[in-house]
Amino acid sequence: MSARLLDSFDQRLRLEGVLATRTGLHIGAGSSGDPLATDSPVVRNASGAPYIPGSSLKGVVRSAAEALFRNTMPLADADEVLASCDHIAGKPCVTHDDLTGFREDHPEDSQAVAEAIWAKSCTVCRLFGSLAIASRVRFPDLPLVGGAPLLELRNGVGIDRDKELAASGVLYDFEAVPPETPFQLTVILDNYTDWEVGLVLYLFEQLDQGGLALGGKTSRGLGQVRIDWQKIDETSLEKGNPFADLLSTRELLSPDEETATESTEKELPLPTTGNVEDWQTLATILRALPAIDKTQLGKQAGKQDFVKPKLSDRLGLGLESPRQKRRAWDVVLQRFVDSGFLVEKNGRYLLAEDSLEEAAPEEQELAEHNPVLQKLYDRYVGAMAQLWEATY
Ligand SMILES: [Zn+2]
User: Fold this and answer.
1) What predicted TM-score, i.e. pTM, was given to this entire model?
2) What is the set of domains in the chain, with CATH numbers?
3) pLDDT, tens digit, for every residue of 40-51?
4) What residues have their beta carbon closer than 5 A to ion ligand 1?
5) Whose CA, among 7, 333, 335, 362, lies 20 to 30 Å from 69?
6) How far is the CA of 77 from the centre of ligand 1 (A)?
7) Mean pLDDT of the residues in the chain
8) Is 6 exposed, middle or buried (0-12, 13-18, 19+ CB in 10 A)?
């Protein structure tokens, strides 16, 4: 338990991804003081670009965690307890009087005071921190990904823009970051348990599914976002060796190295007619070409005695007339396409393995079904689900 009190560093999980707006997003910066400016600008960094303060995101996620656990079970003096106090209503799990009492009980023993605080703290305070306890989950500010978007100006709640102008001579507007604006998302957990990671993943799933919203004007539909995890790194301290290999970091979202090697060495399927070795020779030539076309293929293959009149017989192409035989290289490329060795795309030929790499944008849609991410969800959210089951 002492590690979770943060008096030592054992392990760190770093989640990285993109948080993109689905709708407008308004995180206010307070009045700008400029009479010509909008009444409610969005928060900006020093260079004027909008960003999402990590504290705003943490606030939303923490409130949702409190709502999930509040009043669901009495606080028990157990190490793993699912319960939440009510900070907003001024009912913290560890009060000022508690703190004073712990310090009187354990003068000059800060470790004992920390342990007493920990024992009386609720699930949410233990993870997200309180005045008495350090947070073990951090939300750095979220910078924009790419260039600054054109901010939207929207009318205020229930106020007709023209009428408001006529009534007071003051335009009432607020600024919003437009939909489809991506921000770089980072969440860091220290000395976590699996179920705590599961809780965080669950809360972000709620954000992604629209059950939670960010910023202001959420009753008007603003603040809906999408979450796309891209990298999950686990760093653990190698005990007993604080020097050379102090930390080892593992990227949990990337496949094992063995799997990666297998896929690059995987043989692509070749046509099965005619002479197998001849197809293999041509396949080797195709792999070496900077760009695949029949002229280049014919030229390189010609050096190894592949001449057009003989192609049909050697490769079993079934070409009979001299006119058909002149098209032999076209037929050869087509056979490679038919077998799955080549892919034809927009009039050019690609090795099937390269065409997979080029298909990155389409693959993003598959991210939701990423089996590695699914495994992590099973592990972390599974631990949370089990604890929930055992508690309630
Ligand atoms: Zn609490």
Assistant:
1) 0.64
2) 2-253+371-391 (no CATH), 276-358 (1.10.10)
3) 888 988 888 999
4) 85, 93, 122, 125
5) 7
6) 13
7) 80
8) middle
